[in-house]
Specification:
With 394 residues, this protein is an alpha/beta fold. Helices cover 46% and strands 13% of the residues. The chain is built from 14 helices and 13 strands. The protein has helices at residues 12-22, 47-59, 72-83, 99-114, 128-136, 156-163, 188-201, 223-231, 262-279, 286-296, 298-330, 337-340, 352-362, 381-391, and strands spanning 29-30, 92-97, 120-124, 141-145, 147-148, 153-154, 171-175, 204-209, 235-240, 253-258, 345-347, 364-365, 371-373. The strands form 4 sheets. The chain has a 7-stranded mixed beta sheet with strand order 2-10-9-8-7-3-4, sandwiched between helices. Strand 7, helix 7 and strand 8 (204-209) form a beta-alpha-beta unit. It binds pyridoxal-5'-phosphate. Residues 34, 99-101, 127, 175, 180, 208, 210, 240, 242, 248, 253 line the site of pyridoxal-5'-phosphate.
């Protein structure tokens, strides 16, 4: 049977990780994979996570199955974190999923159940797994313009023009905050126009929230998602806890399906449960329970928020330092966009050749589309990167 298999294309980011590992240079700099690193290059377990895990080990009395949707307390805590009181709780169906990726996969499977002919719109560029899963599921797919290569900001006119041609029932995948890979994000006024455009077309939003708390703050990063949630009878939200709780390998995420009313939410919940059952039965529990413990304990929550805020502000500081260094070294303000971008990434906006030259000549690793993980930098490596960018004439 297996002899019929075709080779699969290597995941660009994961193979970049391998190349980086194999590079013997001791002064190499990894700006590739999307994992937060502190100033020493470590991805620490957050304090509140350690404490919640300690409590779980001490207090948990069973590992018996939980429900198909996961622990309802996890859904309640995540809905509160992301949506606060935007919507009545009885309009929201939710399932725990293996990470944000699992939530996106299940969201797309929901589209296949509910509206098999719907086209899925994805920003160009987007996190590569979006298009890859849509293609794998053989769903109709279109792209909307997103990034202005000249300003390195959002190509807002292009975005509105493209989404203005969406058909009724099309599903539009939006990054709720901290766009990956560009780092460029719409303003709240622009979000209002995006919402109006999608309402006008009768499109259904699918909001991917993978970095809440990494941009402008926990509340601020939820604003666009809340406005979207308040504006449509139906939408889906796929949220990941991998980054903001630093529990990448625990595979913790949630898919929310927002229905027009409570009866429709019950139907939606049954279908979400069904999809979990078909794909993996019960979703992973450990990470979800850690998150619930943190979000519902005032002391743990305050400590988690403080550590997350420190993570966020250290990335902002690195952004400002890099923009300043580049201004000094190039005598030009064309890199100021780095300080305006939000989240873990910025797209430098250069050619694959120049990205290759940075790797070959300086041991600086970024994704071939010139996406840099800002968290891969520290106060010592910022000037080195700035000089390399200036030397490479980017
Ligand atoms: N969505 C975006 C935009 C991402 O960048 C990521 C992770 O890199 C995810 C979703 C999913 O993350 P995970 O499946 O690790 O929770």
């Amino acid at each position: 049977m297996f002899e019929t298999l075709k080779p699969q294309p290597a995941d660009k980011i994961l193979s970049l990780m391998q190349t980086y590992k194999a590079d013997p240079r001791t002064d190499k700099i990894d700006l590739g994979v999307g994992v937060y690193k502190d100033a020493s290059g470590n991805t620490p377990v957050m304090r509140a996570v350690k404490e919640a895990e300690r409590r779980l080990v001490a207090d948990q009395t069973t590992k018996a199955y939980v429900g198909l949707a996961g622990d309802p307390a996890f859904a309640d805590a995540m809905i509160d974190l992301l949506l606060a009181d935007t919507l009545p709780r009885d309009r929201i169906a939710a399932i725990a999923t293996p990470g944000g990726t699992g939530a996106i996969r299940q969201a797309l499977e929901m589209v296949k159940l509910a509206a098999p002919a719907a086209t899925v719109w994805i920003s160009n560029p987007s996190w590569p797994n979006h298009a890859s899963i849509v293609n794998y599921l053989k769903m109709p797919k279109r792209e909307y313009r997103y990034f202005d290569e000249a300003t390195r900001g959002v190509d807002f006119d292009g975005l509105i023009a493209d989404l203005g041609t969406a058909a009724a029932g099309d599903v539009v995948l939006l990054h709720g905050c901290c766009h990956n890979p560009t780092g460029a994000n719409p303003t709240l006024d622009q979000w209002d126009r995006i919402i109006a455009t999608l309402q006008d077309r009768g499109a259904v939003p699918l909001v991917d929230v993978a970095y809440q708390g990494f941009g402008d703050g926990l509340e601020e990063d939820a604003q666009a998602t809340r406005r979207i949630a308040a504006a449509f009878p139906n939408l889906m939200i796929a949220a990941s806890c991998s980054k903001n709780f630093g529990i990448y390998r625990e595979r913790t995420g949630i898919l929310m399906g927002i229905a027009a009313d409570a009866a429709e939410a019950t139907l939606t919940q049954a279908n979400l449960n069904f999809l979990n059952r078909q794909n993996y039965s019960f979703p992973p529990d450990h990470g979800a329970r850690v998150v619930t413990t943190i979000l519902t304990d005032p002391t743990l929550r305050a400590d988690w928020e403080a550590e997350l805020e420190q993570t966020r502000s250290s990335m902002l500081t690195l952004r400002r330092q890099l923009a300043d260094e580049l201004r000094q070294r190039t005598n030009d303000d064309r890199f100021d966009f780095i300080a305006d971008h939000r989240g873990m990434f910025s797209r430098l906006g250069t050619t694959e050749d120049k990205v290759g030259a940075l790797r070959a000549d300086h041991g600086i690793y970024m994704v071939s589309d010139s996406r840099m993980n800002i968290a891969g930098l520290n106060a010592t490596t910022v000037p080195i990167l700035a000089q390399a960018i200036a030397d490479a004439d980017i």
